[in-house]
Amino acid sequence: MGERRKGQYPDELRERAVRMVQESSEQYPSQWAAINSVAGKLGIGSGETLRKWVREAEATEAAGKNRKVVSADDSPEVKRLRRENAELRRANEILKAAAGFFAAE
């Protein structure tokens, strides 16, 4: 009797519950504590159900719906570090050649 099937919860409730978890997570020691609290307040069968909704919302957001995902290769810091690495390699080669020259004398 207490069993719910997929689609039993209206989309508005799902969205509200996810938003409540996101907004109140800082008030709890963990996100799981926030999820359980919100699930209890809204009468959602289990915290695990709400946890799944939160994870789905996070995945959707990360997939580019609300923010641009930058690949690691395009990062300005990665480009800067690659240039610095190449410069240091060249400096090493020069120092090795100089050490060889002075050792031969």
Describe what you observe in this structure:
This protein has 105 residues and is mainly α. It folds into two domains: 8-69, Orthogonal Bundle (Arc Repressor Mutant, subunit A), CATH 1.10.10; 70-105. It contains four helices and no strands. The protein has helices at residues 11-24, 31-42, 47-65, 76-104. Helix 1 packs across helix 2, helix 1 packs across helix 3 and helix 2 crosses helix 3. The longest helix is centred in the C-terminal third of the chain and has 29 residues, at 76-104. It is rod-shaped. The mean pLDDT is 85. It comes from Kineosporia babensis. GO terms for molecular function: DNA binding; transposase activity.
Question: Keywords for this structure?
Answer:
105 residues, mainly alpha, Arc Repressor Mutant, subunit A, 2 domains, 4 helices, 70% helix
CATH topology of the largest domain: Arc Repressor Mutant, subunit A
> Which structural class should the secondary elements be placed in?
mainly alpha
Average pLDDT metric:
85
Could you spell the SSE succession in H and E letters?
HHHH
Q: Output the radius of gyration.
A: 27 Å
Helix fraction by DSSP (H/I, runs of at least 4): over 70%
> Unreliable segments (pLDDT under 50, ≥5 consecutive)?
none
Largest sheet: none
According to DSSP, the number of beta strands is 0
The first-level CATH class name of the largest domain: Mainly Alpha
The CATH superfamily of the largest domain is known as Winged helix-like DNA-binding domain superfamily/Winged helix DNA-binding domain
Strand content: under 5%
The protein's oligomeric status is single chain
> Number of helical segments?
4
